Amino acid sequence: MSILEDLTSILATKGIPVETGIFSDEAPDTYIVITPLSDTFDLHADNAPGVDIQEARLSLYTKGSYTALKNRIVRLLLREDFTITGRTYNGYETDTGYHHYTVDAARHYEFETEE
Questions:
Q1: Which residues, 6 or more positions from 49, have their beta carbon under 8 angstroms from its beta carbon?
Q2: What region does 46 belong to: left with phi over 0, alpha with psi -120 to 50, or beta?
Q3: Which whole-number Å values give the CA distances from 50 to 45, 46, 80, 87, in the listed order?
Q4: The pTM is what?
Q5: Residue 104: beta bridge partners?
Q6: How many other CB atoms are found less than 10 A from the CB of residue 62?
Q7: Whole-angstrom distance between the N-terminal and C-terminal Cα of the chain?
Q8: Is residue 76 classed as helix, strand or coil in its secondary structure?
Q9: Per-position b or e across 6-26, b if 16+ CB within 10 A of its CB
């Protein structure tokens, strides 16, 4: 699995349109764009990676109030075993009418060196 697959699957259950990288359709009043941020290995004493740490940014765009929705998303991610690494209000976009809020999330995946 990957963080992109997991986030898309989990957020789809909440009825919020989600895309990766860019929202390609006509934008609804509320939607999320997921952008991958990093993939790192947690190293151990033997220098072999045991954990693959993947991080992504969820950019929430909404023409309504963002506060209750961002809180629901954060609680959902925490319940689903994600680590929240950042939350930022990016501002109101006067040209589009959207509030833009980002949530950075990470998840640890076991890494096996053999296929």
A1: 41, 42, 43, 111, 113
A2: alpha
A3: 10, 10, 21, 28
A4: 0.86
A5: 57, 86
A6: 20
A7: 14
A8: helix
A9: bbbebbeeeebbbebeebeee
Structure tokens at 66: 């963002």
The residues near 114 (Cβ < 8 Å, ≥ 6 apart) are: none
| Tens digits of residue pLDDT in 6-30 | 999 999 888 889 988 888 888 899 9
Helix intervals (H) in 1-115: 3-12, 67-79
Whose structure tokens read 């296929």? 115
List of the chain residues with pLDDT < 50: none
Alpha carbon distances (Å) from 54 to 8, 27, 32, 64:
14, 27, 18, 30
Interatomic CA distance for residues 58 and 19, integer angstroms:
10
